User: Which sequence fits this backbone?
């Protein structure tokens, strides 16, 4: 899941657009907020806002700060979850928000 910090003077939506472009090469339309997660850290708490986005683009690639980029269908997501290759708590949040991947990736 792409993500990053909201820079000074930036709105959440502009930060989401920028981060997705930097990390996947996708230009997106940022839609509604789907959820919020609080993650404790040794120096405080991160507040993470998760937004739905859409794009007409299909090709994506990992940016310089991402190890991989892919469209994940239901089966791929389930495999990544079973192999503990997702961020802790990600599958549970997406499941609770009704936002698990579709049965097939975009074409």
Assistant:
């Amino acid at each position: 899941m792409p993500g990053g910090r909201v820079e000074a003077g930036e709105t959440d939506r502009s930060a989401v657009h920028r981060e997705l472009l930097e990390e996947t090469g996708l230009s997106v339309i940022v839609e509604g907020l789907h959820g919020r997660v609080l993650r404790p850290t040794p120096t405080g708490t991160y507040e993470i806002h998760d937004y739905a986005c859409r794009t007409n683009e299909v090709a994506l690639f990992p940016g310089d700060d991402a190890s991989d980029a892919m469209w994940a269908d239901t089966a791929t997501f389930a495999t990544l979850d079973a192999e503990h290759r997702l961020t802790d708590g990600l599958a549970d949040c997406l499941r609770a928000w009704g936002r698990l991947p579709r049965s097939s990736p975009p074409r």
